[in-house]
Design goal:
Blueprint (H helix, E strand, L loop, with lengths): L33 H17 L15 E2 L4 H10 L5 E5 L4 E6 L1 H14 L2 H10 L5 H8 L15 H10 L4 E7 L6 E8 H11 L1 H5 L5 H4 L3 E2 L28 H11 L3 E5 L5 E6 H9 L10 H5 L11 E2 L5 H10 L4 E5 L2 H5 L7 E6 H9 L7 H9 L15
Parallel strand pairs: 1-2, 9-10
Antiparallel strand pairs: 2-3, 4-5, 6-11, 7-8, 10-11
Helix pairs in contact: 1-16, 2-11, 3-5, 3-10, 3-11, 6-15, 7-13
InterPro entries: AMPK_gamma/SDS23_families, CBS_dom, CBS_dom_sf
Protein name: CBS-domain-containing protein
GO molecular function: AMP binding; protein kinase binding; protein kinase regulator activity
């Protein structure tokens, strides 16, 4: 006999409560498109427009200011002992800002004495030569006097960046006025490196979205595929328009390149064009500080032996590296320029790995980030189209260390 079990009454209907658990976000990487790159670039520019130069100040910093009455040799010792390559100048007679002492000023001084005086005369003059007389050296050499740049600390980082680019300056003095005396006060100096580090720290999400390669973005100066249009006699440079030298090049020839081309470093290459080192303006200052004015006749190979042992080395990259990768590198270490060399991609096309391909300066990176250059104007058009409807939040600011 079979029996069937059945409830004596219908069971009440149970209603489920809605789940309060949040669905986990996707861990899949965001698609990398030109639109996402341009959107990240726009967000970075908006951040710079909404922040002031004060925001880029590190938590703790020191400011070295040199009186124009100081002689050049003592000024160089101050720079090197404090680990800096430039400093604001102060005219104590007028109680006002008097410009910047930079490495280029020292290069001009070296050129002047190398051509117009003997070693003994130069050595004696540098002992007594005052900073206030540097502008006279520029007039004697026929070089342009650097503009007296300044900006208020309350100005936006975007405006400060544009001023740096438009004037080809690497640093921008920030000045305020004393509320009681009305005299100028030098607050700090904003450098290209400090500005780019601010971006890498405070725009982390956007930096990761800058996936386009340096080659595609046109950031930097690259070896021209053809020879110079009209090569001068004795100036046939296979790496034109990049200035290069070898280990056997006299130091003064490199110093001349620094001044003539207004650059601060020259790649050192071997007979195959492989980058073996980098000679910088700081290396020349080291020779002058040691009193080795006659060392300008030495070769680069001999001069490099006197380089400080804590030289960080040459930072290299390939043209296929992304802009985001470069900014992440700036976040981790102090970088002033990168030497672009041929990589695997160029080697597959018949090139040679490690051969010089280009040079990227911080100025090149900053130009692109603030909008001086873009890919066919696509970024500027994108900004104009979404400016009125933009609702992107400005990220919180972290102070650089």
């Amino acid at each position: 006999m079979s029996s069937t079990l059945s409830p004596t009454s219908a069971s009440p209907r149970v209603r489920r409560k809605p789940s309060t658990r949040k669905r986990a976000g996707s861990h899949l990487p965001q698609p990398q498109t030109q639109e996402s790159h341009d959107a990240a670039l726009h967000a970075i520019r908006k951040t710079l427009r909404g922040r002031t130069a004060y925001d880029a100040f590190p938590v703790s910093f020191r400011l070295l200011v040199l009186d124009t009455k100081l002689n050049v040799k003592k000024a160089l010792q101050c720079l090197l002992l404090n680990g800096v390559v430039s400093a604001p100048l102060w005219n104590s007679d007028k109680s006002k800002f008097a410009g910047m002492l930079t490495v280029l000023d020292i290069i001009h001084l070296i050129q002047y004495y190398y051509h117009t005086a003997s070693y003994d005369t130069a050595a004696a003059d540098v002992e007594t030569f005052r900073l206030e007389s540097l502008r006279e050296i520029e007039k004697a050499l026929g070089v342009a006097t650097p503009p007296m740049l300044r900006e208020h600390p309350d100005s936006s980082l975007y405006d400060a960046a544009r001023l740096l680019i438009q004037t080809h300056a690497r640093r921008l003095p920030l000045l305020d006025n004393d509320s009681e005396s009305g005299h100028e006060v030098i607050v700090s100096v904003l450098t290209q490196y400090r500005l780019l580090k601010f971006i890498s720290i405070n725009c982390t999400k956007e930096v990761h979205q800058l996936h386009c390669s340096l080659r595609k973005l046109g950031i930097g100066t690259y070896v021209h595929p053809l020879s110079p249009p009209e090569p001068e006699e004795g100036h046939d440079n296979p790496f034109w328009p990049i200035a290069t030298a070898t280990l056997d090049t006299p130091v003064f020839d490199v110093v001349h390149l620094f001044s003539e081309m207004e650059i601060s470093a020259v790649p050192i290459i071997d007979e195959d064009g492989i980058v073996v080192n980098l000679y910088e303006t700081v290396d020349v200052i080291t020779l002058v500080r040691l009193g080795a004015y006659q060392s300008l006749d030495l070769t680069v190979r001999e001069a490099l032996n006197q380089r400080s042992p804590d030289f960080p080395g040459v930072v290299i990259c390939t043209a296929s590296d992304s802009l985001g990768t470069l900014l992440q590198l700036i976040k981790k270490r102090r970088v002033h320029r990168l030497v672009v060399v041929e990589g695997d991609e160029e080697e597959r096309r018949g090139g040679k790995k490690g051969r010089l391909l280009g040079v990227i300066t911080l100025s090149d990176v900053l130009k692109y980030l603030i909008g001086v250059t873009s890919i066919g104007g696509s970024v500027e058009q994108f900004e104009e189209a979404i400016r009125s409807t933009d609702r992107l939040a400005v990220p919180n600011v972290s102070l650089p260390s």
